[in-house]
Amino acid sequence: MTETSGPRDPLRDGRNALAGAFEAADTPEPARERAARPVRGPVVAVTGAASGVGALLTERLAASEEIKRVIAIDERRGECEGAEWQILDVRDPALAEKLRGVDVVVHLALDLDLESDPAARTAFNVRGTQTVLTAAPAAGVHRVVLCTSAMVYGALPDNELPLSEDAELRATAEATGVGDLLEIERLAKRAPRTHPGLNVTVVRPAVLVGGGTDTALTRYFESPRLLVVADSRPAWQFCHVEDLCAALEYAVLERVEGDLAVGCDGWLEQEQVEELSGIRRMELPSAVALGAAARLHRIGLTPSPAGDLAYTMYPWVVSGSRLHHAGWRPKWTNEEVLGELLEEVAGRHTLAGRRLGRKDATVAGAAGAAGATVALLGTAAIVRRARKARRRI
């Protein structure tokens, strides 16, 4: 026999439903049900997703509840299991088809390796960016985020401290990869005019540290002495890759508009860097340091052109005001990032910008980079002797 219920009481039913809602709110939502919930955030594609900053950003976005889906694009598959992988060269015109249904593209497939052939590096960087900025609007993507460097502002003695995002880009193509970055900036400015409706944001980090970053500026701290050019005014500002990824996420989620500069708050003077690192300086006159660096690079003994020295001589500190106004804050301080950098480079030996093997680092007179070091140290010794001679007169 089936038990029949009495007349319905709407007030009682409402109370029961409300109690059930509160009980459900106190019950943890199963992970499987959370994963099945529809997410209203954007679909994001990341190029260069298998390594470096691209890999870190891909992991971050794949774990975010504000991102609907992540398309990871690279020439090889990376380790992120939460992304959908598309294996192809970013210069391939087939990229447009891979971007169908994507809302935002973050382009991080750049070659800034010191050891790369400069012509091949430029061809990859420029052609890759051109392809992304053409394929994205063709596929219906409304936003592209590019990443260059605060180096595009140039390191100049009359730079303001700090520089605003809208400061003029006064860099030249004399430093490693900066010519490529300036061309990317030019393409970024032109793309919205060529493709109306496309939003392009450029993110410019300070000296990048973490995630295996290897640049002329990180190698500066692998040397037994910190080269200081006489009468220069260095100001060191770092950017940890975690803070960069957080800034890129802000751009992806459209929490901030306009080109962005990102770095730790404030900066360190050269004396602070030396005190914190415990590395002593080797000081040279400007003409001697720049002349020696140019000659050593010209004959192939060092990977860094003389233009890299400017970024250790003059300030190029950025304010990051747009990100700050949007609520973003760096988690790392300059002191903390410098400490991590010193840990990362511990045991490495770089002289005159070129990394040495163990044998090169311990055997005097070894070929290649050691020879470059001898040249620089010899120049320094000549300068010191000349100064002593002048004092005796």
TrEMBL record:
Keyword rRNA-binding: no
Superkingdom per UniProt: Bacteria
Listed InterPro entries: Epimerase_deHydtase, Lipid_A_modif_metabolic_enz, NAD(P)-bd_dom_sf
Keyword Membrane part of the UniProt annotation: yes
Keywords in alphabetical order: Membrane, Transmembrane, Transmembrane helix
SUPFAM superfamilies: NAD(P)-binding Rossmann-fold domains (SSF51735)
Residue intervals of the NAD-dependent epimerase/dehydratase domain: 44-254
Transmembrane parts of this sequence: 363-383
Residue span of region Disordered: 1-38
Entries under PANTHER family matching the protein: BIFUNCTIONAL POLYMYXIN RESISTANCE PROTEIN ARNA, NAD-DEPENDENT EPIMERASE_DEHYDRATASE
Protein known as: SDR family oxidoreductase
Organism: Streptomyces odorifer
Organism lineage: Bacteria, Bacillati, Actinomycetota, Actinomycetes, Kitasatosporales
